[in-house]
């Protein structure tokens, strides 16, 4: 694993928990965090953390927000979404990383910092990496390599994979500061075309402000001018909320880019190494974490001899369309925020207010933000539930919930007790669901691999064998 950001940390932890030897290398030196660039963890990501026993620890570090103001008076309410986590969790990225790093520490995985990959070649038997560290430059081999090393990925460059796209917004200012008069709805965002502002609370009393003024862009090397941030807040949200001096600030630009391939032979790309997009909707870190959840169980199944290597092809076929959709969705939201003409902005605000006052539209946007919309492609003739997220199905006995049963990275068969013997023979955990639904074989990432209304034991056995369980 190359890159110890959130995506790499989750993926390395999953492999280690599955008993797969894993090496994690990172170009940064130990102790240099990613500060708090990413700040929102969505419901689908919290479900993935729950399936690893990490959700409550992360929730304890964040601030749940159940509604956000969008474009003047329009409000997105996520409190009724079909998930145990019907909210946006506002939490600094370094806290998310700390939870994932603590898991690695418990599993005995050591991150090798100040280690840079400078060469890559692969053959039928594995991948050879040329690495440079404190001991000099030398070669190391691995069965597979995953580049989780960010938008400037050295792995992607060494593979020769193109990363087409363009910059969509420059000179974005990030500020963490105390507000003496914070927004009533906790999360507030608005724009006047050139100027944009987003405000969200951290649990410790500070707020994150994201702001830009495209009429006066500045180089990323210039320090953030706090008076400029206050002016943007007043222009877009009517007040600077009594913003105090920041504890941290930064300036960056945002691109829309997607790697042409997520897999080249035995090498994979995940997270920002595979896709980047605007900060609109807070999708970046969440999409990368779900990349890791999708890939980790497949690598483990192949490396443990439980599945054919062809299973690894489904990582790109499942996650590439998700990356494309996220880029398009966040791009649409950004371009709506960049409307400059006053009449058009007023029309946008009225249209959004009217649309979001309709429960079905509000729910649809909430599903899009939270990641609960994601469905993976399935073969023709598959049961209608196949490819969908299973959700946290209540179970008879202990464990009492599906997310608890998924811990440890196993498949779970949700079926009546008379089908459990077939699951046990195939080495798959089984549980009786109390929701009265059909038989479902749930993958370690919480998606339904196969479903049937009244299958025989033989059909269950065949389905488990074909799934990579």
Strand content: 15-25%
State the distance separating the first and last CA atoms. Answer: 23 Å
Number of strands: 23
CATH topology of the largest domain: FAD/NAD(P)-binding domain
Spans where pLDDT lies below 50 across 5 or more residues: none
Helix content: 25-40%
Fourth-level CATH superfamily of the largest domain = FAD/NAD(P)-binding domain
Walk me through the structure.
There is one protein chain. This protein has 469 residues and is of the alpha+beta class. The protein folds into 3 domains: 6-39 and 92-163 and 259-338, 3-Layer(bba) Sandwich (FAD/NAD(P)-binding domain); 166-255, Alpha-Beta Plaits (2-Layer Sandwich), CATH 3.30.70; 402-467, Glutaredoxin (3-Layer(aba) Sandwich). The chain is 32% helix and 24% strand. The chain is built from 13 helices and 23 strands. The chain has an 8-stranded mixed β-sheet with strand order 5-4-13-14-15-12-16-19, with helices on both faces. A hairpin with a 3-residue loop joins strand 4 and strand 5 (74-77). Helix 1 packs parallel to helix 4 (93-107), helix 1 runs parallel beside helix 7 and helix 7 runs antiparallel to helix 8 (313-337). The longest helix is centred in the last third of the chain and has 25 residues, at 313-337. It is globular and about 65 Å long. The protein starts with 5 loop residues before the first helix and ends with a helix. The mean pLDDT is 91.
């Amino acid at each position: 694993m190359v890159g110890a950001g959130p995506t790499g940390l989750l993926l390395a932890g999953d492999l280690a928990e599955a008993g797969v030897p894993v090496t994690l290398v990172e170009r940064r030196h130990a102790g240099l965090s990613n500060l708090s660039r990413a700040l929102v963890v969505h419901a689908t990501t919290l479900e993935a953390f729950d399936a690893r026993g990490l959700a409550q620890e992360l929730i304890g570090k964040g601030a749940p927000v159940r509604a956000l103001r969008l474009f003047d008076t329009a409000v997105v309410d996520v409190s009724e979404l079909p998930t145990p986590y019907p909210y946006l969790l506002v939490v600094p990225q370094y806290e998310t990383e700390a939870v994932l790093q603590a898991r690695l520490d418990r599993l005995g995985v050591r991150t090798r910092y100040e280690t840079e990959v400078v060469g890559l070649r692969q053959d039928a038997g594995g991948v050879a990496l040329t690495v440079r560290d404190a001991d000099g430059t030398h070669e190391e081999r691995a069965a597979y390599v995953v580049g989780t090393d960010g938008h400037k990925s050295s792995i992607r460059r060494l593979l020769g994979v193109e990363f087409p796209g363009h910059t969509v917004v420059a000179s974005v200012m990030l500020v963490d500061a105390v507000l003496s008069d914070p927004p009533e709805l906790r999360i507030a965002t608005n724009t006047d075309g050139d100027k944009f502002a987003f405000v969200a609370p951290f649990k410790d009393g500070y707020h994150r402000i994201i702001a830009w003024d495209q009429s006066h862009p500045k180089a990323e090397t210039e320090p953030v001018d706090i008076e400029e941030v206050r002016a943007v807040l007043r222009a877009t949200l009517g007040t600077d909320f009594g913003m105090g001096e920041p504890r941290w600030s930064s300036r960056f630009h945002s691109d829309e880019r997607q790697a042409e391939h997520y897999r080249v032979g035995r090498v994979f790309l995940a997270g920002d190494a595979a896709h980047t997009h605007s900060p609109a909707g807070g999708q970046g870190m969440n999409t990368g974490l779900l990349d890791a959840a999708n890939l980790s169980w497949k690598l483990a199944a192949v490396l443990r001899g439980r599945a054919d290597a062809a299973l690894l092809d489904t990582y790109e076929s499942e996650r590439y369309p998700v990356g494309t959709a996220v880029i398009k969705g966040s791009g649409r939201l950004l371009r709506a925020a960049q409307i400059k003409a006053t009449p058009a902005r007023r029309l946008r605000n009225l249209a959004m207010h009217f649309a979001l006052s309709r429960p079905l539209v509000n729910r649809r946007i909430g599903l899009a933000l939270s990641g609960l919309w994601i469905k993976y492609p399935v073969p023709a003739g598959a049961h209608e539930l196949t490819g969908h997220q299973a959700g946290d199905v209540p179970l008879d006995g202990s464990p009492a919930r599906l997310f608890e049963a998924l811990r440890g990275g196993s498949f779970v068969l949700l079926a009546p007790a008379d089908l459990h013997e077939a699951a046990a023979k195939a080495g798959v955990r089984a549980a009786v669901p109390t929701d009265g639904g059909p038989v479902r074989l749930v993958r370690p990432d919480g998606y339904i691999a196969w479903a049937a209304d009244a299958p025989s034991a033989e059909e269950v056995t065949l389905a488990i064998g074909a799934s990579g369980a």
